[in-house]
Amino acid sequence: MLELDFTQTLGSHCLQIRETLPASGITAVFGVSGAGKTSLINAISGLTRPQAGRIVLNGRVLNDTAQRICLAPEQRRIGYVFQDARLFPHYKVRGNLQYGMAKSMVSQFDKLVDLLGIAPLLDRLPGRLSGGEKQRVAIGRALLTAPELLLLDEPLASLDIPRKRELLPYLQRLAQEIHIPMLYVSHSLDEIQHLADRVLVLEAGKVKAFGPLEESGAAA
C-alpha cells in the first residue's frame, strides 16, 4: 500500500496529494502537461522533497516532515524508469542489467531477460540498440533491484509509433507475470487503456479522480 499525504511547491507549481494506492497491478497517473505527474513520482522516489506531509510504502515511512524523516532514493526500494533509458554507454546490456542487481534476483535473471525479450541483446552496447530495446533493458535493470514499487515516467514518450507498438506487449506481459505494483505516468489514453487497472487523474497539482479504469477514465 502506498499512502500519500503531502504538499510540495516547485516554482509556481503546487502539488497537493492525499490518496492511498493499492500495492498491486498498474496504476496510471494521467494528466496534461504541467498537471504534476512527474513531480508526484519524483517525490515518491526521493528525487525531490515535499515541504510538508508523509509518504509511506507498505508500512515503511519514506518521508515524514513532522518527524524529520526523508529516506535517500537508494534506501526506498523503488525502481524508476525514465523517459530516456539512461543506460551506461560503456557497459554491455548484461552489465547494465547486473548493475545494482539484488542478490534475491540472481535466480530470476534468465526469466526476466526472456520475459522482456532481451536475451539476444546481452552482449551489445547501448549504442547498438533501438529506442524500444533500450527501454526494455532499462525496465529490466529497474526490476532486478527487487523494488517494492516500480515507477515509469512516460517510458514510451520518446519512441515513434512502431517502437511504441513493439514495447506495449512487453509491458502487458510484465503486468501479468511480475507481481510488483507499478505507477505508470502517461498523457496517452490509448496506453492507459491497454495497461492500467486503475487511474489517478491529476489536474493543476491535485487529484481530480481516482479509481478503476472504467470509472476514472471518464474524468480523464
SSE arrangement:
Layout: E1 2-10, E2 13-21, E3 26-30, H1 37-45, E4 52-57, E5 60-64, E6 69-70, E7 78-81, H2 93-98, H3 109-116, H4 131-143, E8 149-153, H5 161-177, E9 182-186, H6 189-195, E10 198-203, E11 206-212, H7 213-216
Parallel strand pairs: 3-9, 3-10, 7-8, 8-9
Antiparallel strand pairs: 1-2, 1-4, 4-5, 5-6, 10-11
Helix pairs in contact: 4-5
Main sheet properties: 6 strands, mixed
Q: Overall pLDDT, averaged? A: 90
What is the C-level CATH assignment? Answer: Alpha Beta
Question: What structural category arises from helix and sheet content?
Answer: alpha/beta
Measured by DSSP, the beta-strand proportion falls in: 25-35%
According to CATH, what is the topology?
A: Rossmann fold
| Proportion of residues in helical segments | 25-40%
* CATH architecture label name: 3-Layer(aba) Sandwich
**Looking across the biggest beta sheet, what order are the strands in?**
7-8-9-3-10-11
The helix-strand sequence is EEEHEEEEHHHEHEHEEH
**Overall number of strands:** 11
Distance between the termini: 24 Å
CATH superfamily descriptor: P-loop containing nucleotide triphosphate hydrolases
Number of domains: 1
Tally of DSSP helical segments: 7
Radius of gyration: 17 Å
- Shape, please? globular
Poorly predicted sequence stretches spanning 5 or more consecutive residues: none
GO cellular component, one term: membrane
GO molecular function, one term: molybdate ion transmembrane transporter activity
Pfam families: ABC_tran
Domain ABC transporter: 1-220
Care to describe what's here?
- With 220 residues, this protein is an alpha/beta fold.
- The chain has one domain (2-210): P-loop containing nucleotide triphosphate hydrolases (Rossmann fold), CATH 3.40.50.300.
- 29% of the residues lie in helices and 29% in strands.
- The protein is built from seven helices and eleven strands.
- The chain has helices at 37-45, 93-98, 109-116, 131-143, 161-177, 189-195, 213-216; strands at residues 2-10, 13-21, 26-30, 52-57, 60-64, 69-70, 78-81, 149-153, 182-186, 198-203, 206-212.
- The strands form two sheets. It has a six-stranded mixed beta sheet with strand order 7-8-9-3-10-11, sandwiched between helices.
- Helix 4 (131-143) runs parallel beside helix 5.
- The radius of gyration is 17 Å and the shape is globular.
- The model has no long low-confidence stretch (mean pLDDT 90).
